[in-house]
Amino acid sequence: MKPTTLSVLLLSGAWLAACQSGTTTNETTATTAADSTATAAAPAADTMGVPAGTIPTVGNPQLLFTLPNEHNTPDGLALSPDGRTLLLSVPNLANNSYPATILEITGNSYKPFATNLPVEPTTKKAAPMDLAYGPDGNVYYAENQYENSKKYVSRLMRINMKNGRPGTIETAVDSFRLANGIVWKGNTLYVTDSQWDMPDNDKGSAVMMFTLNELKKGLIHLKPKTKDPHVLAMFTTTVNETGVDNGADGIDYDSQGNLYTGSFGDGTFYKMTLKPDGTLAQQEALPLKGDKITCIDGFIIDRKTDKAYITGARQNAIFVIDLKTNNVTTLAQNPDTDGAGGKIDQPAEVLLKGNRLYISNYDNPVKHFVNTKSDAPHTESYIDLP
């Protein structure tokens, strides 16, 4: 996070992006002091060591709508089964004095969808991140409590739908540490935990899997710091100058049924090949070429083209990975802005509806991000693809 502007947020623990860092207080103090010294010597904003003014402007994202301060960190996006509306999660982690909520998007406007989200008993907060409609017609969302507690109290929540509207909301799985991205593939739900550490690996993350039948049977309790039976694949983050050790974040699958996830902390893009029974056959870090991605937050794969649209949260960019060639191109990017007019402002999630790519500007940076502070306006953007 940047030195003076967000010091209050740093102290309140609300300085993390869509995936939260495992940096300790001492590390934060030391790095903030170092950043302050650097800023004094060179007033230009810290843009990952790139001189101010050299971040390119690529593409022309448009403004969908602006949100009030009560909705300060727009994040997860989900398309309704009929394709008419979108859901938008707002965990409010930049300023969690406001309650978290889920909004419904129709056209270029929004309205409340689920506003009375159940809080986690020990943190007294709700924090919805990625979300998706399940094959049972209910809405599932990953809840990230890591901002509020490191004690494995994050959850997978289920909104029981009745006649197309939200009914009761209940916990489906508990004891995640940082539940983050989710995707349904058939009757199996895959969930990333960006901080699934092991006794011998404090930089760990994982992809979990749950069947619909299992979820119907009742609350599932995970076993922290173990290779729980629900773990499909595990990863280790290489920590760089950001100090962020969050790993697996966004998740989706291609036209062949291969799963992918990306590391928030180091930008590695992983492919997981599955056996016919759904278990893991192979996982690999793809050798990407072309434009460099240093941080992967959320993404969506267009299974008609097998192109992955990636939110480069650290670089203020939207990238495209051609999964047939592993080539990376930049679809949109801009220097540090407040997001006015639809400019990219630390994108966290994307969703493809027809040829329109929706973009959530999370706007809640850590240090060494192009985006230097959380500020109004809070926005949703879009790009109409060719």
Automatic annotation (TrEMBL):
This protein's UniProt keywords: Hydrolase, Signal
Pfam entry (one): SGL
| UniProt keyword Glycoprotein present | no
Name the source's superkingdom: Bacteria
Q: Does the keyword Phosphoprotein apply?
A: no
- Signal peptide interval: 1-17
> So where does this one cross the membrane?
none
Question: Domain SMP-30/Gluconolactonase/LRE-like region, which positions?
Answer: 102-313
Xref: PANTHER family: LACTONASE DRP35, LIPOPROTEIN-RELATED
| Descriptive protein name | SMP-30/gluconolactonase/LRE family protein
